[in-house]
UniProtKB/TrEMBL annotation, chain A:
NCBIfam families linked to this entry: Opp2B
PANTHER family: DIPEPTIDE TRANSPORT SYSTEM PERMEASE PROTEIN DPPB-RELATED
Top-level taxonomic group: Bacteria
Source organism: Guptibacillus hwajinpoensis
Residue ranges crossing the lipid bilayer per the database entry: 12-32, 105-128, 140-162, 174-195, 234-259, 279-305
InterPro entries: BPD_transp_1_N, MetI-like, MetI-like_sf, Opp2B
Membrane topology: Multi-pass membrane protein
Family: Belongs to the binding-protein-dependent transport system permease family. OppBC subfamily.
Compartments it resides in: Cell membrane
Primary site of residence: membrane
UniProt keyword annotations, A-Z: Cell membrane, Ion transport, Membrane, Nickel, Nickel transport, Transmembrane, Transmembrane helix, Transport
Name of the protein: Nickel import system permease protein NikB
UniProtKB/TrEMBL annotation, chain B:
Organism taxonomic ancestry: Bacteria, Bacillati, Bacillota, Bacilli, Bacillales
One of the GO biological process terms: transmembrane transport
Annotated membrane topology: Multi-pass membrane protein
Protein's name according to its UniProt entry: ABC transporter permease subunit
Family named by the database record: Belongs to the binding-protein-dependent transport system permease family. OppBC subfamily.
InterPro entries noted in UniProt: ABC_transport_permease (IPR053385), BP-dependent_transpt_permease (IPR050366), MetI-like (IPR000515), MetI-like_sf (IPR035906)
PROSITE patterns on file: ABC_TM1
Pfam families per the UniProt record, alphabetical: BPD_transp_1 (PF00528)
PANTHER family noted in UniProt: D,D-DIPEPTIDE TRANSPORT SYSTEM PERMEASE PROTEIN DDPC-RELATED, OLIGOPEPTIDE TRANSPORT SYSTEM PERMEASE PROTEIN APPC
Primary localisation category: membrane
Chain segments annotated as transmembrane: 12-38, 81-104, 209-227, 247-266
Amino acid sequence: MKQFLLIIGSRMLQLIIMVLVLSFITFLLMKITPGDPIRTMLNVEDMAATKADEERLMKEYKFDRPILEQYGEWVIGVLQLDLGESLISKRPVLDMILEKLPATLSLSIGGLVVLFIIAVPMGVLGAVYEGRWPDYLSRWTALTGASIPSFWLGIMLIYVFSVQLNLLPVMGKATLAHFILPSVTLGVAMAPLYIRLLRERLIATLQSSYIEAAKARGLGKKRILFSHALRGSLIPLVTMFGLSIGGLLGGVTVIEILFSWPGMGELIVNAVMSRDYPVIQGYILIIGFLVVVSNLVVDIMYVIINPQLYNGKESM
Amino acid sequence: MKTAVIRTSLSLGNVNLVLGLLLAVFITSVTLIGGSLVPHDPFQVDMGNRLQNSSSIHWLGTDQLGRDILARLVYGAKLTIGLGTVAIVVAILIGVPVGLISGYIGGKVDAILMRIVDGILSFPDFILAIAIAGILGPNLTNLLIAIVLVRWIVYARVVRGLVLTEKQKEYVLVSQTANSSSLKTIRMHILPQVIPDIIVMAAIDVGKVILLVSSFSYIGLGAQPPIPEWGAMLNDGRSYFQVKPLLMVYPGIAIMLTVLCFNLLGDGLKSHYDIRRGRGRI
Amino acid sequence: MSNSLLTVNNLTIESRSGEPLLKGINMEIGRGEMAALIGESGSGKSLTARAILGILPDEMKVNGQILYKGRDLLKLSENEHRLLLGKEIGIIFQDYRGSFTPYIKIGQQMIETIRTHQRISKKAAKEAALLVLRETGLESERVYNSYPFQLSGGQVQRAAISMTLALRPNMLICDEVTTALDLMNGEKVLKYIDKARRETDCAVMMITHDLAQAYKWSDRMHVMYQGAIVEDGPTEQIRFHHQHPYTRKLCSSLLSLPKERKASSAEGVYSI
């Protein structure tokens, strides 16, 4: 129990540091950039913008105050779950993000499923046949896969499966079939890293003395591989996975744009295009939160997979 | 047994290194020679020659505005590879000294610095780049600034870790007690150990930057038309996909081959260095 | 010898680069015999054991004959060979931490092993496992429900031995089983193995670098040096009438032998 509290505590600290540092950097950047949000708003409101209007808005949004004060107010707002409102749509940022979040998360999960379907067999092949042709196949697949731009892969998949074969729908997220192409694209794009990682870990595990002992007990090859070796290799995989949740959330952005997936990617790209700063800020905050929460989940899974950590007896 | 394992990785590592070099030669010669054999202006619009197929004049045909695709690809190659290299070199020039100093001095400053760095690093770099590029304004220069801002931290982190390991080793301790200056210890003993890892990382990173830049250009946050950056070309060609799919195929293959080249070089060099240092495994 | 259980004829092993690791081993172990295989590290003792078990790395070339109950182990298919392991030939390792997979409870691993070789229900397997654990003097229920790291070294080693003996093998290979244990626990373990040997008439191949141990427990000794057996015979004979210069050196340095460390260390197995 103490273990868990410690994990949660250190993750909270990470969240706080990350969000404070990042939001401060973005705040600073906003201040020194030429594109003035007030002008953005005035353009949107499409009226004969006068000097007076500008000043009124400056006051209203407190843009005339010192930066630290503005920043402080933003932080206080965040603590009250108020991320401000969009300069364009005037809607609360939190609402805008939360309504796009499910679509992004569901696509991410779809991508993860595909990722595992690809990475586990390829990684295992590479490790079991180390130095032979399946290993070469696995390594070159990983290398090539890591070299293909995900959005281009998506375009090619669309061309083959939707345009030529007319098998799968492309845009939107109406049915389960709509999930297939974006998930596959995302999963394939993410897989190479895990193929290599799993292969390396599994090779190390297969040479460990407990695997030799399992062989000496006459256990079958499959049994040794799947219930003994793979489990040992999953631990670093889980860690790695936790570290790349962020990569997943980043990678999903491009895929969303490509497939017109109504998720957060669309939201942030539009916000960037129109310099909608509160939305950008809120987006960073939410992503940071998601990253930390998923790291927390990974920490806990880690303890469950590796019972050695229960009583803190982390040998060697 | 150990020798056998090393041999396997040696051969595959070398194969990858050789493949990477071959690809590099290929890309370089296409970029240098291909452009001058069939000289076209990559920006020259020619509405009378839209969406042409391959011919002796336009080897890879023309795009929706009648511009020569090969000329644009070649221009894109120079641009993309150049930008990727510059971004990573700058990141290294900032990150490596910071990492060396932070790791060498250690102590509280180091601890606090690394805590902050970890906080930033656990944030997805793609999204950080979106945010920074977004705030500064979506164009190629700002994207590169964003990349450098994120990547130098990675180098600092890795170098610091390596320095900490090296510092434990005997010869560094000896050198330290032998009263040579800190700067000299770093230069003579630590830096040479760190360089191979930096080179491997850099090779792979240039590939990553190329992917990132093309992704950004594709979603409209990077290179803007009419710049023939490969991702931007793919974005341009989207509407003509049905009419002329090859318009979407060429830039993608260009990206893939270039990134593959850097990945092969990185992978090959890593095996090469690992074996030389007796680390055995791939 | 008519009661020969294991006969090794001219066994050679080469590494992939052609380096000879074992140079023609000949050895015979009778039923119920306690045979010691003694030599310094790197002399090929463990390699011999692994050749018998067929768990050498793929890239090593093995030649010769290993007859077990008249069947040549080297000619068996992988699957046939595998089914002998555990059931007919058991091994106990020096690195007791590596005897069990660290992420799986000991009981589960015992059941798994028993059920690989015997078609019995889970419940019956559990009973068998608990029984052998109790025989070694362990708190059977607790050990059964523990992960390896939750037990002390001596306990894990005894659990490993009881798991190995649970299937009543006809031959037991003990690879430096006492090296990683303190003196007291080491003696206990050997005593238990000897008792089991007498009760089940199981032959024991004791791999050790500890001459005193070999003298005390073995019936027959095989002295290995640089990949070859340089001398063998009844323990008494070797002890008092050894011929080979290496044996002489070994015997005279009885008290000054350095502690042997296993070359293929289990480093990194537990690291995360």
